[in-house]
Design a protein that fits this description.
- The structure is a homodimer of 356-residue chains.
- In chain A, helix 4 packs parallel to helix 5 and helix 8 (206-218) crosses helix 9.
- Chain A is globular and about 60 Å long.
- The first copy, chain A, contains 13 helices and 12 strands.
- In chain A, the strands form 2 sheets. Chain A has a 6-stranded parallel β-sheet, sandwiched between helices.
- The longest helix of chain A is centred in the C-terminal third of the chain and has 15 residues, at 305-319.
- In chain A, strand 2 (31-35), helix 2 and strand 3 (57-58) form a beta-alpha-beta unit.
- With 356 residues, chain A is α/β, with parallel strands linked by helices.
- At the A-B interface, helix 8, helix 9, helix 10 and helix 13 of A face helix 8, helix 9, helix 10 and helix 13 of B.
C-alpha cells in the first residue's frame, strides 16, 4: 500500500497532470498531498471539484512529508523535457527522506547518478513506470488461467479504454466479484501500482508481456479487466493492440469509442464503424482463441445529454449490444448487461483438436 | 560493396549455418572465403553443391585474408551461447587487420570491450545486424513514395517469405525492372547488406521501422519486395506481422505458405486456409491502405514432384490466384503472372476524403 505525494509544480490544474488526476480518482492507494505552489493552502476538491478529494495542496516536499507519504509520484512532464532544478531538488529530498520515487517521465530517473546516490543515502528506490521489466516470449500459459479475462478494445487511442476498464472493475467489485484492473500503460500502472507499459516492450515480446500480466494478476482475482491500447486499424499502434489481443488471451471484449471521434488522431485514417470494428476484433480472435465483443463503453464526452442518449441508442441499434457511457451514467448498468457475456472462459484453437 | 569471409568453424555444413548459406546463395556481395577447419582445402560447391559457389574453404582467418575480404561475417551461433576462445581470436584478428565484423549473434559484439579495442587498433568497425537503429514513429511518409511496394505475408514463421521476396526480386530484375529486396530480419539483412530486424524494435516504433526501410529503399528502386515476418494469427509474432503490413504500406501482397505445415510452430494454433488468410490480410489492409493478395508462393519443400504439383493446383483452385513454387520451378512464371497485379500504387484511406 502506497501513500502518494504528487509532484505537480505549477501544473496540477492543467491537462498535463492527467496522470495525477487519474491516480487521485482511481488508485486504491491514497494521495495524501499534492505539491504545487500555485495552489498551496487549498485542497484538491477546491481546484478540481470532480476529483472529490480532500488531499491538501502544499508548496514543498518538506510540507508534504507531514502527511506521511511513502512515495513521491512525478505525474507531470516538465515543459521542454528537461527536469527544472527545483524538481530535481524535490526528488533528491524525497529520496533522502526514504520516499520511493515513482516516475512516468520518458527519461529514466533510475539512470541518473544524482538520484541513484540520493536513493542510496535514503535507503529508498526509484520506479520508472515506463521501463518494462524483462519479459519472456508468449508461451500459451495465459490459456490456463482460471480467471476470466475481459479486454477493452478501442476505435483509436485516447478514447477511454483505461477508464472503462477501471469503472467496470469497480462495478464488478460492488457486485461481489473478486475483480482486478490490469494496467498496460503509464497512467494505468500508477493507478494500479503495478503493470507493464506494453508499447515500450520489444515487438517480439509484447504478447509475452501481456501474458505475464494476466498470469500474475490471475493469482489474485477471478475476473480481470485488462486495459487495452491503441486501435486495430491505427497505422502506428495497431500492432500493440494486437499484442494485447493475442497475449492477454481474453475471454470477452468490451469495445470503447469516443462518440465525437471520426478519424484516427494524427493520421486521418477513418474510424471504423461499430460493426466493422467488431468484425475485425472478433475475426482476429477467432483465429487464435475466440472472444466476442459483449458490450460497448461509449464515451460521450463533449456531447450534451440528449446527444449522448442519441449516440448510445444509435450504437445499440447498429450492434444489438449493451451500450452505455460508464462515466456519465456510472458503470453498473453496462456491467450488469455484460455480466452474462463474461461469465465463462473460452478455449484456444488447437490444430490437433481440429483434425481429431 | 562487401567481400565476405564467413566464419563458421565446424558448422558450415550444418543447418546452423543457414544464414551463411543464404548470404552465399542470394547476396550481391560475394563470399570470397569460408573459415571452417573441418572442410579446409575444399570449395563451397564440394560441400554444398546447391550453393554453386567456387569460394574456397580455409582453416584460419589468416588464410582467408589472402582472398581480400572486406568483412568477416559471423553467420552461425556458437553451441551453448558463449563465444569459444578460438572464435574470439579470429574476430580480434579480423578487426586488427582492418576488416569490418558483421554479426548476427544475440550478444552484441559492439558492446564487448575486447572487440571495441581491436576495432580501434585496426580502424575497423562492428555491425551487430540484430540491433535496430533509432527509428521514428510511423508518420505516413511511406504513403508518398513512388516505388511500388510488394510485401510477402505468411501462414507462419519460417515458411519461405524471405526466399520468395529474394526470388521475385531476381525475376523482376531479369525482366528489366529496377527492383530491390528490403530486409526485415537477420539473414535478410546480411544478404541485402542493410535493413532492420523489425522484431527487435520497441512495439510502438515497429511500423516506423518498416516505413523508414521503405522510404530509404524507394530512393534507389521502382519496385520493392519487402521481406515479411511471422503470420497474422501467430500468437507471439502476429503483431510484428501487422507492423510490416501497416508500416511498409504495401500496394500488393504475396502470400507464402509451406505446403506441409498444418499448425503454427510451437503453439498448435491451426494454420488458416488460403481463403481465410487472404480475407484476414486484405481485410486489415482495407482499413488503412488497400492491398490485395496477387499471388501465392507455395513452398513445396518435402513433397515429391507430383505432390508438389497437386498442392499448387489445389491452392490455385481454392483462390483463383497465380500459384507457384519459386524455388522448385524458378520465380519467372509467378513473377510474370503477378506483374499486372503489382503495376500500380494504392492510396491510403482518408477520413476527410470519405466525408467529402
Amino acid at each position: 500500500m502506497r501513500r502518494y505525494a504528487i509532484l505537480a509544480p505549477g501544473m496540477f490544474a492543467s491537462r498535463s497532470a492527467k496522470t495525477a488526476h487519474g491516480v487521485i480518482a482511481y488508485s486504491d492507494d491514497p494521495t495524501v498531498a499534492v505539491i504545487d505552489p500555485d495552489h498551496a493552502g487549498r485542497r484538491v476538491r477546491d481546484v478540481l471539484p470532480y476529483l472529490a478529494s480532500d488531499a491538501p495542496i502544499v508548496a514543498t516536499i518538506a510540507e508534504a512529508s507531514r502527511f506521511r507519504p511513502t512515495s513521491l509520484l512525478v505525474g507531470v512532464a516538465p515543459v521542454g523535457g528537461a527536469l527544472p532544478p527545483s524538481w530535481r531538488r524535490s526528488i533528491v529530498l524525497a529520496l533522502e527522506a526514504g520516499l520511493e520515487v515513482v516516475s512516468g517521465l520518458h527519461d529514466e530517473l533510475s539512470r541518473d547518478p544524482e538520484f541513484v546516490a540520493a536513493a542510496e543515502r535514503g535507503g529508498s528506490s526509484l520506479w520508472d513506470v515506463r521501463t518494462p521489466p524483462p519479459v519472456p516470449l508468449f508461451s500459451g500459459r495465459a490459456y490456463d488461467v482460471e480467471a476470466r479475462v475481459v479486454l477493452t478494445v478501442g476505435s483509436d487511442c485516447a478514447v477511454g479504454k483505461m477508464t472503462a476498464s477501471l469503472e467496470l472493475t469497480r462495478a464488478a467489485r460492488e457486485r461481489g466479484e473478486h475483480a482486478r484492473f490490469v494496467a498496460t500503460g503509464q497512467t494505468g500502472i500508477m493507478i494500479a501500482g503495478s503493470g507493464i507499459a506494453v508499447d515500450r516492450v520489444i515487438g517480439d515480446f509484447a504478447p509475452g508481456a501481456a501474458e505475464q500480466l494476466v498470469v500474475q494478476n490471475a493469482q489474485h482475482a477471478d475476473l480481470l479487466f485488462v486495459e487495452g491500447q491503441g486501435g486495430i486499424n491505427h497505422p502506428a499502434y495497431g500492432p500493440v493492440t494486437l499484442s494485447l489481443l493475442y497475449g492477454a488471451a481474453p475471454d470477452a471484449l468490451v469495445l470503447v469509442h469516443l462518440a465525437t471521434r471520426t478519424e484516427i488522431e494524427d493520421y486521418g485514417t477513418p474510424i471504423l464503424s461499430y460493426r466493422a470494428l467488431i468484425r475485425m476484433y472478433e475475426g482476429l480472435c477467432s483465429t487464435v482463441k475466440p472472444a466476442n465483443v459483449v458490450g460497448i463503453a461509449l464515451n460521450t464526452f463533449g456531447l450534451d445529454g440528449e446527444a449522448a442518449r442519441d449516440a448510445i441508442d444509435e450504437a445499440q441499434a447498429a450492434t444489438m449490444l449493451p451500450v452505455d457511457d460508464v462515466v456519465r451514467f456510472g458503470p453498473h448498468a453496462l456491467y450488469d448487461a455484460i455480466a452474462p457475456g463474461i461469465a465463462t472462459k473460452t478455449r484456444p484453437l488447437s490444430a490437433s483438436r481440429m483434425t481429431v
